[in-house]
Design goal:
Distance between the termini of chain A: 37 Å
Largest sheet of chain A: 6 strands, mixed
Order of helices and strands of chain A: EEEEEEEEEEE
Helix content of chain B: under 10%
Radius of gyration of chain B: 14 Å
Shape of chain B: globular
Number of helices of chain A: 0
Largest interface: A-B, 24 and 29 residues
Distance between the termini of chain B: 38 Å
Oligomer: heterodimer
Number of helices of chain B: 0
């Protein structure tokens, strides 16, 4: 079983729609969680950190379910510029605060 | 504000040649520094990380090495490249922060070096 699992997609979504991604992680000791976006042939960029109570940043909402060990990202009113690969990232918990475990990403394509 | 520089942007090297990739960070002190590799269509693989000058932790045994000669400089090297070393090499920095939910370690990346070994 992979440590961080994501549906690779691609998700083909019309502009203006709402899209949701899920990610599951295997390490119950993980204590910090993130969503990054990566454009084609570019470096990953932090989209948002995910907190226990869930958090929102504009059109983006992240949720954490520790009991089921999954993280979600919701994008509302999707824009063409949201097309990218979305990476789910968790830390290793007590093993190391410095190391992050990266999912392989979910590709999102927004169509006009 | 913090910035991170990596060079070169692209590199084509023959098998068996040496490698040196450099990364520098500005605008922060004593950052944690990381080298990752991303193969085409794959996730990020952590190669090395450093929490201070001269302190290197290796995650994957291979023909690569890393050094941190200065606080904000991180170098990735190889004496002899293999075909399997081809990939997208990314340097990142972070600073740990304690929040209500736990210890967070957001990492921020340089533009990367795309290495092709022929």
């Amino acid at each position: 079983r992979k440590e961080v699992e994501q549906d690779p997609g691609p998700f083909n979504v019309p502009e203006g729609a709402t899209v949701a991604f899920n990610c599951t992680y295997s390490n119950s000791a993980s204590q910090s969680f993130f969503w990054y976006r990566q454009d084609c042939r570019k470096e990953p960029k932090l989209l948002m950190s995910v907190y226990s109570s869930g958090n929102e940043d504009g059109r983006f909402t992240a949720q954490l379910n520790r009991a089921s060990q999954y993280i979600s990202l919701l994008i509302r009113d999707s824009k063409l510029s949201d097309s990218a690969t979305y990476l789910c990232v968790v830390n290793m918990g007590w093993k190391s605060n410095y190391q992050l475990i990266w999912g392989a990403g979910t590709k999102l394509i927004i169509k006009p | 504000s913090q910035t991170i520089h990596q060079w070169p942007a692209t590199l084509v090297q023959p098998v068996g040649s040496p490698l040196s990739l450099e990364c520098t960070v500005e605008g922060t002190s004593n950052p944690n520094l990381y080298w990752y590799r991303q193969a085409a269509g794959r996730g990020l693989q952590l190669l090395f990380y450093s929490v201070g000058i001269g302190q290197i932790s290796s995650e994957v045994p291979q023909n690569l090495s890393a050094s941190r000669p200065q606080d904000r400089q991180f170098i990735l090297s190889s004496k002899k490249l293999l075909l399997s070393d081809s990939g997208f090499y990314l340097c990142a920095w972070s600073v740990l922060s304690l929040r209500t939910s736990g210890i967070y370690n957001e990492q921020f990346f340089g533009p990367g070096t795309r290495l092709t070994v022929l």
